[in-house]
Specification:
By secondary structure, the chain is an alpha+beta fold. The chain contains 26 helices and 19 strands. The strands form seven sheets. Strands 2-3-1-9-10 form a five-stranded antiparallel β-sheet, covered by helices on one side. Strands 4-6-5 form a three-stranded antiparallel β-sheet. A three-stranded antiparallel β-sheet has the order 15-17-16.
Length: 696
């Protein structure tokens, strides 16, 4: 018999930020256990239910008795099981007796090495009821819970105390005990609005009965959709919008079982405080949804998601308005107090704040970032004075009361305080952009100043932490160095897009890495830190581009270690090149050249035109000389597609060379000269990318 299986665990309020993760992990563990023992098929589906006070899983088509399964038991080899006359040995007789069968029933099979005797038997499938409670308890033990708690006088442990257990297979109660709780058919409704005890007749009615009798929307996704619909409707009724709210919506969904949305308000005088402060305190501390006008400006209104549905919401709204007022008062107090001290007066105090025990204080870091930001500004043609000033003030807001209360406002508050101090707008904007660069238009001088500070901050982080051995390992990246590298890459791409890193003499990220390393005390960093960080950045580029372009095209470019600003353009050019009819032939020829040169006994040596004897090698040499100036011009102008198209023009000469010319001739002088010709050809063919790496 198959029937739906319902497992529900009734608990005290579960951690909201991990609720859905716990529920999904619980489902996956149960499915895996039941599949392993044949109680469900490999394609069986399950529905998860998660509310603040329950974790539940409803699994379709679960066998009460698992199907019997064939078991193959291997015995002795044929060589050991039969004597010279072909009669069973004691080893074979003993195996047959142990299996409870006659020798004649045994089969002869190959185990891949030799022929053996084996017994095929049927193993009877187990009953669901036998150990379902053990499966449930094992699944709970495997949940990603960082900290367990105990309750009562027993030994049971879970993330929150457990008060109820339902295990229903169809309309049949499966007896068992999990975390000290006996299974039953009783579940519980909403703490205040639903029935405290609901007797379930079968597993299928679980969701509907909870909704009708319990006033609980058990499905997380359905509850989330209901909250979203109510929020949008209420916001619209006030002529407002919700702004970014997905993360808060998920958290609030995990806090309520039957949501109702109400609108509250606060004194408009609080809007004198930067809106980021008010938004954060409402969202983070109170779980309210702030409302915004059409221009994205905060309104003196917010929405409350309550776990109570009432006809008169006066008490709920009034209570929440009273609660939020002290929070807004705190934000206003911090803002007013912080503005009494200029940012530049706070900078020397950063000497008391440790950045890293091996890398010194925040002040020492600021001094390095200031010098590096100035160097980057000179390379980009940005305002050096503004870049250095922004770097000098960048970390000063770490010492303010507002950032102390809300670390998420780092940089954002620095921008407001810098404006209050009368700093240039480019400086203010750069301070605000240092943690989340917003560069929609890098064509303006002010935005370039922001890019300089952003790059300097991340490059100092990468070089410093790599230099003391704090590298990412596997999945662990406690200092977010992968993110710092990606931020560096994206900023370079934006800078390139507006032509601020072009030309033969343009700086590369490697130049900035080397300059950053020179700013640390001598001997502090590992000697190869610049190489290591550069390689780390290029790996991130490879991973990033390989999701967009073929991997061989990305590898062909990155393996050449070009300037970071050129990588994407070169990969695009390689993709254009491989569409040409000459591409495959030239790629194959380049592979052949590499193989010849790899075995060459002369790694270097000048080409002697006088030793070019064969018409095909003379013709190839002339073709190379004719296109070299054009390719030089293409490369200087970063016209990589043009360079590769020009290269395609010598395909005929290359093919004829290999058809007509013997490279590895007996004459050592002639052989060395032809190797020199191929080295020059190899260098010419791979100016943009290593085309030998392109798949045919």
């Amino acid at each position: 018999m198959t029937a739906p299986l319902l497992i529900e665990l009734l608990t005290e309020e579960l951690p909201p930020k991990s609720l859905l993760r716990l529920a999904n992990a619980f489902r996956d563990a149960l499915l895996g256990s039941l599949k392993d023992d044949g109680h469900i098929s490999a394609t069986c589906t399950a529905k998860v239910f998660a509310t603040p006070r329950r974790l539940a899983v409803l699994i379709d088509d679960v066998h009460e008795n698992a199907p019997d399964s064939e078991v193959l038991v291997k015995g002795p080899s044929v060589k050991a099981g039969l004597d010279a006359s072909g009669k069973p040995t004691q080893a074979l007789l003993g195996f047959a007796k142990k299996r409870g069968v006659a020798v004649e029933v045994l089969q002869r099979i190959s185990d891949g090495k030799q022929e053996i005797f084996a017994h095929r038997d049927l193993a009877k499938g187990g009953r669901l009821d036998t150990n379902l409670d053990l499966r449930v308890e094992a699944a709970l033990e495997d949940l990603p819970v960082p900290k367990m708690m105990r309750w009562g006088s027993g030994d049971a442990q879970f993330v929150r105390p457990v008060h109820g257990l339902v295990m229903l297979h169809g309309d049949r109660l499966v007896a068992g005990r999990v975390l000290g709780i006996e299974s039953s058919t009783l579940t519980s409704g909403h703490r205040f609005m639903g029935k405290s005890a609901i007797t379930l007749k079968n597993a299928d009615e679980y969701e509907a009965r909870l909704k009708s009798d319990g006033m609980v929307i058990a499905d997380f996704a359905a509850r989330r959709a209901e909250i979203e619909q109510q929020l949008q409707a209420t916001a619209k009724s006030h002529g407002a919008s919700l702004g970014e709210h997905a993360d808060l919506l998920d958290e609030v969904t995990a806090l309520v079982e039957h949501p109702s949305v109400y609108a509250g308000s606060f004194d408009a005088a609080y809007l004198d405080v930067p809106q980021e402060c008010l938004i954060l305190t409402m969202r983070q501390n109170q779980k309210y949804f702030p409302l915004f006008d059409a221009g994205g400006r905060l309104l003196p209104r917010f929405l409350i998601v309550s776990n109570m549905q009432v006809a008169d919401s006066t008490h709920i709204v009034g209570g929440n308005q009273r609660v939020v007022r002290p929070r807004l008062d705190d934000a206003r107090f911090f803002y007013n107090q912080d503005r009494r001290v200029r940012l530049e007066e706070r900078v020397p105090l950063l000497a008391r704040m440790v950045y890293h025990n091996k890398l010194g204080s925040q002040l020492e870091r600021v001094e390095r970032i200031q010098l590096l930001a100035g160097e980057i500004a000179r390379a980009l043609g940005a305002n050096v004075e503004h870049a250095e000033r922004a770097a000098w003030l960048a970390k000063a807001d770490l010492l303010t009361g507002m950032v102390g209360e809300f670390p998420e406002l780092q940089g954002i508050m620095g921008r407001y305080y810098a404006r209050n101090d009368g700093e240039p707008e480019a400086v203010c904007a750069a301070i605000g952009d240092q943690y989340l660069l917003r560069l929609n238009d890098l064509g303006t001088p002010d935005s370039l100043v922001s890019a300089c500070l952003y790059l300097a901050d991340r490059i100092d982080t990468l070089v410093g932490l790599f230099g003391i051995g704090e590298k990412p390992t596997g999945e662990k990246d406690p200092f977010a160095l992968r993110r710092a590298a990606l931020g560096t890459i994206r900023t370079f791409d934006l800078i390139v897009a507006v032509g601020k890193l072009s030309g033969k003499e343009a700086s590369d990220v490697r130049d900035f890495l080397a300059h950053a390393a020179s700013l640390f005390p001598a001997g502090l960093l590992t000697p190869k830190v610049v190489d290591e960080v550069h390689e780390f950045i290029l790996e991130r580029v490879w991973n990033d581009l390989a999701t967009i372009y073929p991997k061989d095209a990305v590898e062909a470019v990155v393996s050449q270690r070009p300037k970071l600003a050129e990588v994407t353009a070169r990969v695009k050019a390689v993709q254009d090149f491989r569409e040409l009819p000459e591409a495959d032939s030239l790629s194959a020829a380049n592979k052949r050249i590499r193989n010849i040169l790899r075995k060459s006994d002369a790694a270097s040596g000048a080409l002697d035109e006088a030793l070019l004897k064969e018409p095909a090698e003379k013709s190839l040499y002339d073709s190379m000389r004719s296109i070299e100036p054009q390719i030089d011009s293409n490369m200087l102008g970063r016209d990589y597609s043009g360079a590769l198209k020009t290269l395609a023009g010598i395909r005929g000469g290359v093919d004829k060379f290999f058809d007509d010319v013997m490279v590895n001739v007996e004459d050592s002088q002639l052989r060395a000269n032809r190797h020199a010709l191929l080295r020059r050809l190899d260098a010419l063919m791979n100016r943009v990318a290593d085309i030998s790496k392109l798949a045919g």
